[in-house]
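User: Show me an example of a complex going from sequences to structure tokens.

Assistant: Sure. Here are the input components:
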Amino acid sequence: MSKKQKPKNRVSWIMLAITVVVYIITAVFNPHVAMSALEKSYEIIKSIAPIIVVVLFLMAIFSTLVKSKNIVKHIGEGSGIRGWFIAIFGGVLSHGSTYIWYPILAQMRSDGAKDGLLIAFFYARAIKLPWIPVMVAYFGLTFTILLSVYILLGAVLQGIIADKTSAG
Amino acid sequence: MSTCTHCKEILNSTKRSFIMIAPMLLAVIGLVGLLQSVLTPEMIHSIFSGNAVYDMFVATLVGGVSVGQPFISYILGGELLQEGISLYAVSAFILAWVTLGVVQLPLEWSLFGARFTIVRNLLAFVFAFVISFLTVVTLELVL
């Protein structure tokens, strides 16, 4: 996975057009579902808009002030154990929907971040710290601890596998 | 470079990034809204059979296309467990819910490329099985 691809904005517009068409078709056959979907989408936009603005702003600060060689040093090739710690704990501590993190991670990747570490970051996000009490309430403390430990191990393993496959 | 130049550069970069991701983000949010309206908890419930292996597979697929806050998967998972669905399947379901994102695939694909997206999602799919299995087996040994 050494090729770092530039985002394709054309694909984004096509995707948006497809979504609009799906909504129009839904509205024709079932206006209630279309309206409910629009309301839910609006609620999502309201809840994530401030986070998106902050993430994009942080991303811009990051790209302006942080040099690429520093990225490579911390989470690039040869970052070692420290890189894994940053990826795993970053993933566990990160909040919000995964797609909010896509732009900043894609930029880090084009700056030299290792694919394996990014994949480990994504998987470590499966541990949702704020929701742990809810999980404990439903499934018990032992289950929650075991699942969390295996998620962390799984995140590292996936990162290693991803790096091996890209090297091979 | 002066601080002011940095500020201008940061603001311009923020604007450019926003313009770049806005269409795809809107598309993904629109699809998430649609799925949340179409895919009801009752529908999810009716798909399981009672066979642990089959249910694990189905649970991973259903968790992968489902969207919403993680606690919704815990609530649904808790209900499924009470209905007699195996803990293997329920674990795979809550894991796939947070690690797989079928609706977000186009956005991931456009920003990270095909290879990264396929590898990451395939690994997440396989590990939903592996981790669920290991968690429940270890739990049975511990308790």
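The lines above are the inputs; the final block is the predicted structure for all two components together. Chain A touches chain B through 72 residues (CB under 8 Å).
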